[in-house]
Amino acid sequence: MCPLCGETSTFDLDDNELLNNMQGDLATFTLDSHGDPPHILFVYIDKQKKIRGTYPFLVKQSAPLGKSGLNYNHFVDATSDITAEEAESSGIKIIPYDVQINGKAKKSYPFEISLPEIFGLLIQNRKLDSLPIQTEKFVETFTSIDNELPIIVNTISSQISKNYKNALKAKKIIGKRDPQLANRLNIVDSLAAGSILKTMAKRSVEMDRKGRELQEIMMYSEWLRHYHRTYFIVHDTDKIRGSNFLGRFSGIMGGKPLIACNVDGMGKIEPSKNVQTFKEGLGEIGRLIRKDFVKRKFTGTIFHALSEQNAYRLLEYLRIMFKIDKEELQIESCCSTIGINGGLGVLGLSIYPKI
Fold it and tell me: Are residues 35 and 160 in the same domain?
């Protein structure tokens, strides 16, 4: 049953079709537009053919182009690590978060402190915390928009930070005094951080510039948020003890934790195993990719916190094991959030199916 209009939809599903669409523990299907106003329906089904979730999206006509040549306002929280220069050139607006240093001073990322500066503070063994974007900041950001175009807001995973929940609170507050503005807000829980969140935000703008309608952009974001996977090895096990979202894994003794994110396609984060050597870590990452992606090709980003040599070793391993082109995997510094919470030496990758 559609949660928006209450209409019951039926469709045939054989075992092969379910298997071919499985990514992790869930398969995703899109039902045709229906209802008034017209809307499409995403359906998530597990291996037992039980429906795990249904999510409607309105089919809307494109609004007149704004001054920037875009149909929509695009926002992303700073955990995407899109630089101010990238944001300005692409038409994305960054919502900054505060980095707290030694429990006292706060600096707004990325405008008052940069990623290299964060790494520099970590080298000095400073205590850093990434603070959630406050509800008031979201309210201030949304109410300062000077046009009537729809608004797309991509946020870090709700399993990592309160940003998504605080953005929803801001929408609710705004709805009491400006319902039209609140209705224009499309807030996305990316179930990710760093490169996947950056990809989601940039792809939204690219699709917008190509004249794609809002529901097409939201469909892509919905697909990416459920089908990406992230795996990373924590080198500094002492560092994660004080981490907001990695601290729960600090009690696992022996070796270095290998952590898998979005393992169920719904944002779940869990330790895979503790690895004793780099070679063992590579093998475990390979095993997880084979399990999660079966025979599908994938693309994405290898990230690291000042461990570039190991990043290239990981790239070579994946190139040989999965026969992929080097161009399918970019190497870059890890996002600020993982660096702050995981410490120096973090190595991992964020990938999604190639289409």
Answer: no
